[in-house]
Structure formats: structure tokens, C-alpha cells
Amino acid sequence: MHKRRVRHHVNPLADRTEHVFAGFDNAQPIIVDIGADRGEFVVQLLDQWGTEKNFIVCEIRKPLARALEKKFAPYENVRVFDGDATRNLRSLLQPSIDGGVVIEEIFINFPDPWFKRRHEKRRVVTEEFVRDVQTWIPAETQWIFQTDQQKLFEETVAIVRVNNGVLTFFDMPPHGATTKWESAKMAEGKVIYRCRFTL
Length: 199
Description:
Blueprint lengths: L29 E5 L5 H10 L4 E5 L3 H10 L6 E4 L3 H14 L4 E7 L17 H7 L8 E6 L2 H13 L3 E4 L10 H8 L5 E6 L1
Parallel strand pairs: 1-2, 1-4, 2-3, 4-5
Antiparallel strand pairs: 5-7, 6-7
């Protein structure tokens, strides 16, 4: 039997799935992984923190999301959601924010660069997204953006700057955790561009 092929260039705007999440049953800080792929990044964070933090894992590709649900089923501090994360982020986080829970870090690791100009609206970090997020996300929430695409990185940094975000740059994988894509690109000698910002 052939394994089902997962399309990497699915249009995220075509998925209108909407989620609401009331929050976890505790007040532990929340880590968000947008575009979790096969979940190896979150697995490494779980190895470090165990149940000290809660994790919201977002993956737009439904076959991968179903696989992630199985992978993280044993963990009560992990919830997996499919669909467009940018469309659902507020409904997933607002109840926790209202309850005083800290949204500690939101990771955007190696997103599709959507090179064509007409497809740029499909990116995770857009002007529209940043302006919306600034109206509700706590100012202390840390966003971590990583990519091997220099043009995408520079354009993302420009969007954050023009919207008065506070940026810092770093070289090493955050918390020592890497993705398979990152490891493969580093093995090829590619540069990994990384920044942390608040909005």
C-alpha cells in the first residue's frame, strides 16, 4: 500500500475550519507551535519541560494533524488543531488570556515562503495579521520566527518593524530544539535566519 502523499503547497486560505478552545485545566504557561509538521520540535520541548508548560500545536494539513493527535494523545498538556492557525489563533488563546494564563512563546518555524507576489497574503506573518494580533495578544508574548529563506526573513522583519514590534536576533536553535527541516538544511550548509519579537 502506498503512503498517502501530503501536499506541501496547500492554500491555507481555502480551509475555513474554525476552532474554539476553552483552555487547559491549569494555569501553566502556554507554548504555541504554528505549522508543527510532524511534531518533532514540540517533542523536544516536552522532553525538557514535561508538564510544566502547556502546548497548542497547529498544523494545517489534516493528515499530519491526525497523526499529531495520535502522537500527543498520551499528553494531557498538548492540544492539536488543524486548519488555518492565523484564522483561529485568537479563539484558541483568548479564553486562556482572559483567565490570566501567560502565552509565553509562539513559534513559527520554517513556514512556506509563498514566493509569488500574488501569494504573499498566504504567509503567516503579514501586515494584516500583525495589526490584528496587536489588538489582543499580551505585549510580553514572545514570537520566534525561523526560516532558511533570506528574502522571507527580511520581509517578515520589515513588517514587524513597521508595526513597532521589538526585535532581537539570535544564532542557535531556541531551547536547543530543532526540526527535521532545519537539520537537513544545516547539513546542506544553509544559513538559518532567526529572530524573536514582541508586538
